[in-house]
Amino acid sequence: MKIIDQTPFQTEKGEISLLNRLQGTLQHGFSWYPELEAQKIVIDQLNRVLEKGAVLIRNLTLPDSEIIEPIILIGQNGVYVIYVTHLRGRYEAKGDQWNTENNGQSQPAQPNLMSRVARLAKVLQRYLQTQGVNLPVQVEPVLIAVDPGMHIESTRPAVRVVQSDAIKQFAASILQARPVFTTEYIYDLADRIVTPRPKSGAAPQPIAPPAAPEAVPASTADNPVARAHAIFNASEQAQPFNPSDLGFALQDESTGQSQALPKNLRESSPAQPLPRPTSKQRGMSFIQWAIVGFILVVGCCGVIVFSYLIFPALFNSLSFMK
To answer: Which residue, among 11, 9, 7, 34, has the nearest Cα to 23 in the 3D structure?
Structure first.
């Protein structure tokens, strides 16, 4: 499985320094780093099953936006947006409701992970549609819990819910499903997600085998690779991709802030290497620097107090020995 890691604040070796971890926590909240560690567990298990013919894109920040797609998995049978949670406890997934169970009583839990992953899937679907890519299947939202101590009671959930002991079965179901995409299409689609291109003048057709073979041009009917290129080759007179066409805002339940794609997206050249995310690396605000400074001052005071308590006792013990 090909993995395209776009995680912000991460080095090329996949490491996150203490300062970057602190900065990422200030920007994304205390659950940011634990979720990154939980993602590694899921990716490792998926990679063991989906050895070839699949692409996984991790923590992609949509161009010039604040929206991060946690895990995008492209397999031969479809596209999945996966949200990995590190939480533990008893929860209930009922429709689009996300509740926590306490003493036999259910109450709404915040944030609502069901609606969050569902909206992330819709964002990706619209993101592709604005580029002229109409998938033959819907982008499927998936919520995965990695902690064995998390139990989810599912009652017709709006998104697929996978618990820790069923991650490998989820990966196996992708292999066993009827193929919809060719390998060439999968890699081209992944490249289009990371590096958006202009929308073609003619609406592209799905790569799936058509219902009426006679309607397919003879030049591409027997050549899946040619069909994939026909879908992704942009017209020379095409207009640049405009993220405002999404008409979609990602609402965060915990903060109530809307994260909408701005209107000034400029297309990256497909010939350039896959870009690293930059929108999340603008530096910390004044309030964030103030918090960091406060933490450093408290740490220094702790060192001084510790030295004052330890070293006099050490000197006294040495004097007693003499």
So the answer is: 9
